[in-house]
Amino acid sequence: MIKLLVTGGAGFIGSNFVRYALHAHPDWHVTNLDKLTYAGRRENLHDVMDNPRHTFVHGDICDAAVAGPLVEAAHYVVHFAAETHVDRSIMAAGDFIKTDVEGSFVLLEAARRSPNLKRFVQISTDEVYGSVPEGSSVETDELKPRNPYAASKAGADRLAYSYWATHDVPVIVTRASNNYGPYQFPEKILPLFVTNLMDNIPVPLYGDGGNIRDWLHVLDHCRGIDLLLHSGVNGEVYNIGGGNEVKNIDLTHRVLKLSNKGTELIKPVQDRKGHDRRYSLSSAKLKAMGWAPQVPFEQGLAETVAWYQQNEWWWRPIKERDPNYRAYMDAQYGKRG
Ligand code: NAD
Ligand code: TDX
Question: What global pTM score does this model have?
Fold first, then answer.
């Protein structure tokens, strides 16, 4: 049995990846290490918690006593665990440095001792390139992260690379664009906007709404990671971009249409500090290996909007009763007015 360790597997992408891996690889056992921060939810794993090939471990990647033996037992590690929300990193960056940089360090140290490790996938992000006014980022481009989240991810990205270059740990680094799909925490633009609209609450659009993000369906991301686990080259970086560059204002209009709501529910608010104008990835390197996004954006967006509309059980307790969520939103709106 192949042993896969997923970190952060109770979060948005991690839980989708755990589900994907259990389905795609009947001979894999998935150990899932997650601290269950505000963003990590057991509900995200409701349909796989009882799967005998899935073991959930409630723990912190910064805790070497817990994380170390799990890494040492693994054939594959896919390391998603991180603090991930840019706006939170602007308010307070300490947890980002702790988890994203130091947590990655703890896992990489353990990886040096791991006898059977074939692959350590460091999940990085397109944000490490910084804002890209024109053209598309290739893997060899300079890293110019512009917010504390992106900088902490860039630190971890290069730390992982150094463990390959120095210690021969079988590291692959992936840099994906903005993911969308089910189980995304409703602080991120898409689930926030869809669920606000269901309650006729205005959607807070930052600045002039002209910022561009490249949308990647979470399952296309999972398929890209899976391909790299099998066929990637250690020490290499791979961009994973959806190829769907959309201005936030246009995304908002699409979501309004799918929600049968009018533009009066758009509320322009103060811009995010240091707001990156545009991300754009060239995925030519991964495409040359046979990967291509399979989910057309229009279809994926409609399905995703419908998922939030049909799964109030999942998001309503977070939005209405989670004290961490309420405190975060109060802090955001207090600032943006
Ligand atoms: P998320 O915030 O939904 O989930 C993060 C998960 O990590 C949660 O389950 C949380 O409990 C867990 N976690 C946090 N700190 C931990 C710790 N110290 N120990 C163990 N677990 C911990 O994030 P996501 O959107 O699913 O992102 C997953 C990864 O993908 C991150 O590394 C992120 O930087 C990267 N990424 C995300 C996107 C995106 O669009 N969401 C795009 C590119 C890259
Ligand atoms: O209320 C909002 N209004 C708004 O206009 C929110 C939450 C966001 N925005 C804008 C800011 C961004 O231009 O929408 C865009 C997307 O914002 P987020 O959903 O916060 O994502 P982003 O900042 O682009 O970062 C995401 O993609 C890269 C993930 O959160 C990161 O973890 C990933 O690395």
Answer: 0.98
- State the pLDDT at residue 81: 99
Q: Which atom of ligand 2 is nearest to the CA of 82?
A: 32
260: left (phi over 0), alpha (psi -120 to 50) or beta: left
CA separation for the pair 300, 148 (Å, rounded): 30
Q: Which H or E element spans position 334?
A: helix 323-336
Mean pLDDT per 10-residue interval, the chain, length 337 residues:
98 99 98 98 98 98 98 98 98 98 98 97 98 98 98 98 98 98 98 98 98 98 98 98 98 98 97 98 98 98 98 97 95 71
- Indicate the domain borders of the chain: 2-179+215-240, 185-213+248-276+300-333
**Alpha-carbon distance 310 to 215, whole Å?**
22
Minimal-distance CA residue to ligand 2 atom 27: 178
State residue 334's pLDDT score: 76
Distance CA 236, CA 174 (A): 9
* CATH 3.90.25.10 correct for 185-213+248-276+300-333: yes
Distance 167 CA to ligand 1 centre (A): 26
- The CATH number of the domain covering residues in 2-179+215-240: 3.40.50.720
